[in-house]
UniProtKB/TrEMBL annotation:
Residues 454-726 form the Acyl-CoA dehydrogenase C-terminal bacterial-type domain. It comes from Bradyrhizobium xenonodulans. It is an enzyme of class 1 (oxidoreductase). It catalyses: a long-chain 2,3-saturated fatty acyl-CoA + oxidized [electron-transfer flavoprotein] + H(+) = a long-chain (2E)-enoyl-CoA + reduced [electron-transfer flavoprotein]; a medium-chain 2,3-saturated fatty acyl-CoA + oxidized [electron-transfer flavoprotein] + H(+) = a medium-chain (2E)-enoyl-CoA + reduced [electron-transfer flavoprotein]. This is Acyl-coenzyme A dehydrogenase. Belongs to the acyl-CoA dehydrogenase family.
């Protein structure tokens, strides 16, 4: 072993130390945050499918289900999204009072501190349901239970801090927010210029050592109404009051917003969404050191704390909202396509409508599958950092496509705003999800593969740590051990990738999963191809790979597809292999395989080392990218899942916020049900070439009762396809004086003529 180390490994070790780029503290802390999970299996190139299938599905406790059936349903019934964003520009006071009283802000706070102590899956289910009724309410509820003071206190706070603040957060006495983003530092949070200088000062009548803070934050959700601000800043100790180091690094602290120097209350208007969001400032705000989350010993550890908390939060809140948006789009668009007729037939019969409708349906199936699988990990105490990034990125991006497709199918119905428009506000909200908690462009190009390649790879992090070891001999020994395991792993992966690619995955490992078994074989094949190409890219590019953002993004896309497709297979298995849902699974697989093959082809076409690229192409893609996507048959079957009342439709769109009012969604649900129930009658009328039900009764084609049933269904459809209109003075204060727009313009014309 020592001969290998000193003769073969040592020169490689010396070379690698010379080319390894320096890693900043923030990069290292981000890498160390969170856990690896199923992503590590995918990175091996030989995933253990039995491990995936053994994961216990996320489930609600009886108490959590009762909360969904009780307070959550009651809250949804209180919400009127049109009035919230058009008239009030806020949640009404009775809603604020209700969410505080029922402890919506304390869902994740343990019961010992007065919270509900709910699981991540329960948190996800609550956000999912509320968001199908009101985006503003969903964001208001999800933020205190995601990245913020509560999460950070639970993980890193001292016992004294937890005992003081968590009960107040749980019962709503304090409304929290978290200030991270600065005008100068968006995605690059480490470049913030917000400062905290350690000094002596007076606090509550006594002289103590504390921090004098100056900051400027923006885009802070709940900021305008927050009473407790979690703040990220850079701490400095110029007088060495707590140690020898002057620059301590990013730190997080709790700031009661009533302290002198805090400027808070102004609001942003993000894409016309009216959840509370705004800027805040602090000018010479003094706090004692025990307001630092975790106390003095946590000074300078804020970035790692934030990344650890974010690893969980990004996997819950926005994926839940996005999965809900996709399911909502599937249910409403399927119903609308079913009842809306053009040229004498339902528009759902047009293949041009079927194609985007199938995409909506399959996306809803896949996003909820991935949401549930991720929540299962979180429920088990795992905090998968890379997977959380995948979830935030792809859930919001795919929701964007689903909502755009839904808008296209609805046409003018979804474009004209008003109380009866059940899609418009969701469409306006999409850019917010794309932007927050890490911009999607950055996540795709730098984080998913950039972080995943190091964290999830079986040996790379060990090699990097060995190379960075200040004790050269110890580092060499550790590197020797990891490097040769890596070499063996790469050789086995090459053989595996070659065999599976040339046989189209026919003999790849797969569980006995019925009709889905071939899909597992293909994922095993693609996992091997991905692992081999990733290893070769890392070998030939080294540290330069992180600057090849387009290559990194393509690798990230493949890793993301492997995870999302795994989740879809897991869902189909957990739900009992429902035959009716197989079309949605087929669509997901065909589309995902096409993406994987195209990204592999793009990587091989752009890998700088052309010799390696040619060899890799012969190994992993000898016949080129061959998957074309879902067939027309699959598209037709997938779209059909939401066109009739069925168990499959309910599985695809479960637990949406159904409120029996006269709103647009409720009207649509009633019309859909009535049209479906009258379908057989309508078919007899069409067969007789009759359109007026009274003629059908007169000619004996249908009975009087059946005719009245058709009439009722027709009236319900008419109410759905109506769009809102307003008196001029209801939309603009310009016309309120005259009350008559025609008179206003007539007088304006007379004034111009007179001048």
């Amino acid at each position: 072993m020592s001969f290998r180390r000193d003769t073969l490994t040592k020169p490689i070790f010396s070379w690698a130390r010379g080319v390894l780029p320096a890693m900043s503290d923030t990069e290292r802390e981000a890498l160390e945050a969170g856990d690896v999970w199923w992503d590590a299996d995918l990175f091996t190139g030989n995933p253990d499918w039995s491990k995936l299938l053994k994961i216990a599905p996320a489930k609600l406790t009886a108490e959590e289900q009762a909360f969904l059936d009780g307070p959550v349903d009651e809250l949804c019934a209180m919400l009127d999204e049109w009035k919230i964003f058009w008239e009030w520009r806020d949640l009404p006071p009775d809603v604020w009072h209700f969410v505080k009283r029922e402890k919506f802000f304390g869902m994740i706070v343990p019961k010992e501190f007065g919270g509900l102590g709910f699981s991540p899956y329960a948190h996800s289910e609550v956000v999912r349901k509320i968001s199908t009724r009101s985006i503003a309410a969903a964001v208001t509820v999800m933020v205190p239970n995601s990245l913020g003071p509560g999460e950070l206190l639970m993980r890193f706070g001292t016992k004294e801090q937890q005992g003081r603040w968590l009960p107040r957060l749980a019962d709503g006495r304090d409304i929290p927010c978290f200030g991270l983003t600065s005008p100068e530092a968006g995605s690059d949070a480490a470049s913030m210029i917000d400062t905290g200088i350690i000094c002596k000062g007076e606090f509550e009548g006594s002289e103590v050592i504390g921090l004098r803070l100056n900051w400027h934050k923006r885009y802070i959700t709940l900021g305008p109404v927050a009473t407790l601000l979690g703040l990220a800043f850079k701490a400095y100790d110029p007088d060495h009051l707590v140690g020898s180091q002057e620059e301590l690094g990013i730190t997080v602290a709790l700031i009661p917003t009533n302290l002198p120097g805090v400027e808070i209350g102004h609001r942003h208007l993000p894409s016309m969404q009216v959840f509370q969001n705004g800027p805040n400032r602090g000018r010479d705000v003094f706090i004692p050191l025990d307001y630092v989350i975790g106390g003095q010993e946590r000074l300078g550890q804020g970035w790692k704390m934030l990344m650890t908390a974010l690893a969980a939060g990004r996997g819950i809140s926005l994926p839940s909202l996005s999965a809900a948006g996709a399911a909502y789009a599937a249910r409403t668009t399927g119903a609308y396509a079913r009842i809306r007729e053009q040229f004498g037939i339902s528009i759902s019969k047009f293949e041009g409508v079927e194609e985007p409708l199938a995409r909506i349906v399959a996306t809803a199936y896949q996003l909820d599958a991935a949401r549930r699988l991720t929540c299962a990990a979180l429920n088990a105490g795992v905090h998968p950092a890379v997977i959380s990034g995948i979830m935030k990125l792809h859930a919001t991006e795919r929701m964007r496509v689903s909502v755009d497709d839904a808008m296209d199918i609805h046409g003018g119905k979804a474009v004209i705003d008003g109380p009866q428009n059940y899609l418009g506000n969701l469409h306006r909200a999409v850019p917010v999800g794309i932007t927050v908690e890490g911009a999607n462009i950055l996540t795709r190009n730098l984080i998913v593969f950039g972080q995943g390649a190091i964290r999830a790879h079986p040996y790379l992090l060990d090699e990097m740590n060995a190379l960075a070891d200040t004790d050269r001999e110890r580092g060499l020994t550790a590197f020797d051990k990891a490097f040769w395991k890596h070499v063996s792993h790469s050789f086995n992966t090459l053989l595996r990738a070659f065999g599976r690619s040339w046989t189209f995955g026919a003999f790849a490992l797969a569980p006995d999963a019925g009709d889905a078994t071939p899909f597992y074989r293909q994922l095993s094949r693609y996992s091997a191809a991905f692992a081999l190409c990733a290893d070769m890219a890392l070998l030939t590019l080294g540290g330069a790979l992180k600057r090849k953002e387009m290559l990194s993004a393509r690798f990230g896309d493949i890793l993301s597809e492997l995870y999302l497709l795994s989740a879809a297979l897991k869902r189909w298995q957990d739900e009992g292999r429902q035959k009716e849902d197989f079309a949605a699974l087929e669509w997901c697989m065909a589309t995902g395989f096409r993406t994987i093959e195209n990204r592999l082809a793009e990587i091989l076409a752009n890998l700088p080392n052309r010799f390696v690229a040619v060899i890799l192409k012969l190994v992993v893609q000898p016949f080129g990218a061959r998957v074309l996507g879902p067939s027309d048959r699959v598209v037709h079957q997938c779209a059909s899942l939401v066109l009739e009342p069925s168990a499959a439709r309910e599985r695809l769109t479960p637990d949406l916020a159904h409120v029996d009012d006269d709103g647009g969604f409720a009207r649509l649900e009633r019309a859909f049900k009535l049209v479906a129930e009258a379908d057989a009658i309508a078919k007899r009328m069409r067969a007789a070439h009759l359109s007026d039900w009274k003629d059908g009764v007169a000619k004996g084609v249908i009975t009087q009762a059946e005719g009245e049933q058709l009439s009722t269904a027709h009236e319900a459809v008419t109410k759905v396809i109506e769009v809102d209109d307003f008196a001029p003075e209801a939309l603009s204060p310009i016309y309120k004086k005259t009350g008559d727009v025609h008179q206003f313009f007539q007088e304006l014309g007379e004034q111009r003529a007179a001048s």
